[in-house]
Amino acid sequence: MNFDFLKKAEEVKPKLTAGFHTVTGGQILSEKETAVYDFRTHLVGYPKIYFSSIGAHYDAPALIKGRFCETAQELDEDTSLYNGWISKGWLQEEIIHLDELPCVYEFKRRYAVRYIKVEVIATSPKYKLKIDKVKIKSVTSAPEQIAVCGKDKREKTIDKVALKTLSECMQYEFEDGPKRDMRLWLGDLRLQALTNYQTYRHNDLVKRCLYLFAATADDEGNISQCVFTKPEVAPDDASMFDYSLLFISTLYDYFKETGDKQTATDLLPLAEKQIEIARERFNGDEIEDCARLGWCFLDWSLELNKQAGAQAVYIYAEKTLIKLLKEFNIDTSDYENDVALKSAKAIESFYDKERGLFVSGKQRQISYATNVWYVLAEVFNAKENSSILNRLKEYKDAVKPVTPYMMHHYVQALINSGNACDGRKVISNYWGGMVDRGADTFWELFNPDNPDESPYGGKAVHSYCHAWSCSPSYFLRKYFAEK
Ligand code: RAM
């Protein structure tokens, strides 16, 4: 642990501000009956329920199940059927005893919630349970809400939902999702930071997160994929090829936004280290093809081959490192030679001339993820990149994005290659598709072609307020603001 960096992270730890929300009750419930309380918007915070009894003096504890749902669809889900590989521990539900009535039951856990469903498992024949009211104390480190933007009602709604998504994920760190995993992930941070610069401008929170990743890098300089902060700051024991490299871009973006030379100087050596570490995954100038789930992220599609895309992220990150080093007048010739070699090899190994698309792995798989990252890496010029994206759209068997994270990169690739109008349409169709389905905040996963898709083996653990989906607010302000 680098304690100097940890100290710098803690120095800018934010304070949370609280909001108070109440839904009035009055429902009288017998065994097996349920009541649902709707807070009319998504909240992150601590619920409490005011209970009393009706009838004779209570002669047995009441046994209650509370369920906390981010969306209306979740209310009808049978969570007992969930058997996926992500822990059931993330299910937002609790069974509690009420030994004394009346009482105010305060839930200890922080919940991401719009609806609270209360189910009475047991009372006794002598009494019924009354729910008088339900309250939530919400928390965030986002400053005051800011004005929405957009050219029409649909865009304004998308922006409002995106702003809400970001502010709900702004806690002591930029969390990936307040339901799950409630912690700092690098890929999510990068998009949150970009959106933050256009909106809340809570730049110290980005600084804190950069230092948390730097503080927890191991002795070789490996940056972890995510950082825990409770009970104390600690790295996850795994890294992902692309996320570690994107530390460089996150630092570069932060520096360009703030001009904070001290932070950039502190963290530059670690940024360089990410390229050095990533180079170990190359045979000559070609990246290895690894089968291990999670070695490189790109997207949550389980069929996605990551080989070619990983090389594109490497080129993208190395080019960003060159820009960062140039800001400090540091020699970049080694990196420039390397970028040229890796780009040439990528074209030789992964570019299918007949199809005019990049392919990945032994199966020569064509995907959005691979091609989008080559567009972002600017291995070809904008005109050719634009043609690649057009051909990709026509290629019906291409592996499609399943997360707003990948869709962010698709929109950025469209904008960078001169197709901003198409990018804007994607925002309207894709993020708007979630709004059409009732989203108060944007989701972790959304595949309009297969809404039930889950890489986790079940939707019960899905997060419906997920950091990496906040970037419409970045695009709408940075590229489409009405001037
Ligand atoms: C999910 C997390 C996070 C993401 C990783 C790769 O489980 O929620 O958002 O960055 O996967």
What does the secondary structure layout of this molecule look like, with pairings?
Elements: H1 3-11, E1 17-29, E2 34-55, E3 62-69, E4 93-98, E5 103-106, E6 111-122, E7 127-140, H2 153-169, E8 184-185, H3 186-198, H4 203-215, E9 226-228, E10 234-235, H5 241-258, H6 261-279, E11 282-283, E12 286-287, H7 307-327, H8 333-350, E13 351-352, E14 357-358, H9 368-376, H10 382-394, H11 404-416, H12 420-436, H13 472-478
Antiparallel strand pairs: 1-7, 2-5, 2-6, 2-7, 3-4, 3-6, 8-9, 9-10, 11-12, 13-14
Helix pairs in contact: 1-4, 2-12, 3-4, 3-5, 3-13, 4-5, 5-6, 5-7, 6-7, 7-8, 7-9, 9-10, 9-11, 11-12
Bound molecules: alpha-L-rhamnopyranose.
Describe, in plain words, how this protein is organized in 3D.
The protein is of the alpha+beta class and 483 residues long. The protein has helices spanning 3-11, 153-169, 186-198, 203-215, 241-258, 261-279, 307-327, 333-350, 368-376, 382-394, 404-416, 420-436, 472-478; strands spanning 17-29, 34-55, 62-69, 93-98, 103-106, 111-122, 127-140, 184-185, 226-228, 234-235, 282-283, 286-287, 351-352, 357-358. It has two domains: 19-140, Galactose-binding domain-like (Jelly Rolls), CATH 2.60.120.260; 153-478, Glycosyltransferase (Alpha/alpha barrel). 39% of the residues lie in helices and 19% in strands. Strands 1, 2, 3, 4, 5, 6 and 7 form a seven-stranded antiparallel β-sheet that branches. The longest helix has 21 residues, at 307-327. 47% of the residues are buried. The structure holds alpha-L-rhamnopyranose.
